[in-house]
Amino acid sequence: MTIRPKSADAIEKMRAAGRVVAEVLQRLRALCRPGVATAELDAEAVRLLRGCGARSLFLGQPHPRGGRPYPGNICVSINEELVHGIPGPRVIAEGDIVSVDVGVEKDGWCGDAARTFAVGPVPVRVAELLAASADALEVVRREARAGILWSAVAGRIQALVEGRGFSVVREYVGHGIGQQMWEPPRVPNYVGDDMARDDFLLAEGMTMAVEPMVNMGRRHVREKEDGWTVVTADGKPCAHFEDTFVIRREGAEPLTRQAPEGAQVSPERG
Questions:
Q1: Where are the alpha helices (DSSP H) in the chain?
Q2: What is the 3-state secondary structure (H, E, C) of 86-99?
Q3: DSSP element (H, E) containing 56
Q4: Is the bond preceding 34 in cis, omega lying within 30 degrees of 0?
Q5: Is the pLDDT of residue 111 over 90?
Q6: Per-residue model confidence as pLDDT tens digits over 15-42
Q7: Gap between the Cα atoms of 106 and 190, Å rounded
Q8: Cβ-count burial of 177 within 10 angstroms (0-12 exposed, 13-18 middle, 19+ buried)?
Q9: Angle CA(195)–CA(168)–CA(259) in degrees, nearest 5?
């Protein structure tokens, strides 16, 4: 199954949702300071989403194996936590790296993005981990163009990450996105034995959430006792970067980055 291309009108609505995501991430980056509890990030995200006429895509999501629904509005994962960290009383400390994942629905269309922020100085190798993960998204922006197979892009992501001495997580991948947060197909960040199943041809107007997840050590992960938070199996740091993209002839356009000067999202009045 492949991704259904979106109309120009649908893409503009996704762009509006994506700008809300970008605004929330920008604000939460400023809040990622020592002494701030992750629940405070969640509360600020709720305030911003309500002001922009949007809602969280994560709150209440059913657990894939029948556990409790996801209880947060955003995901906040720290250090060795990769994804799905639940906001709560944990306090951010100097030297932490904090991954924030934000998914929203606005006017019937979705946007989904994540960033990993360094809180104060971090070791050089940790900074390199974040840079490699961010650079993987730039590979998508440059290389994911109409007319090529996704496997060509995934292979370049994997080569960049592994070429810098890190590993690509395989249990969690990107996805199509549109009026639903998760739409088929899977969008992996590596080329594995299952690529024959996952591969697809990119076409103008396809929209997808691409999310490289990169580990400092080995690629293996496990789920914590809370039923949601995913951590590295070896306890080493990891990073998670994600954008929602629309495929164009010349490359992939990110829809979840800050708007140009003068075009920022403003809270709705009413």
A1: 8-31, 38-51, 124-143, 150-163, 195-198
A2: CCCCCECCCCCEEE
A3: strand 55-56
A4: no
A5: yes
A6: 999 999 999 999 999 999 999 999 999 9
A7: 31
A8: buried
A9: 95
Longest dimension (CA), the chain: 53
Identify the structural domains of the chain with CATH numbers, from first to last. 8-253 (3.90.230.10)
Mean pLDDT of all residues in 80-93 = 98
Evaluate if pTM is beyond 0.85: yes
Q: Do 66 and 9 form a contact (C-beta atoms < 8 A)?
A: no
SS (H, E, C) 20-34: HHHHHHHHHHHHCCC
What is the residue type of 242? E
What local confidence, expressed as pLDDT, does residue 259 receive?
61
Tell me the CA end-to-end span of the chain in Å, nearest whole number.
Answer: 42
pLDDT (tens digit per residue) in 138-193: 999 999 999 999 999 999 999 999 999 999 999 999 999 999 999 999 999 999 88
Identify the burial level of 249 via C-beta atoms within 10 angstroms of its C-beta, where 0-12 means exposed, 13-18 middle and 19 or more buried. Answer: exposed
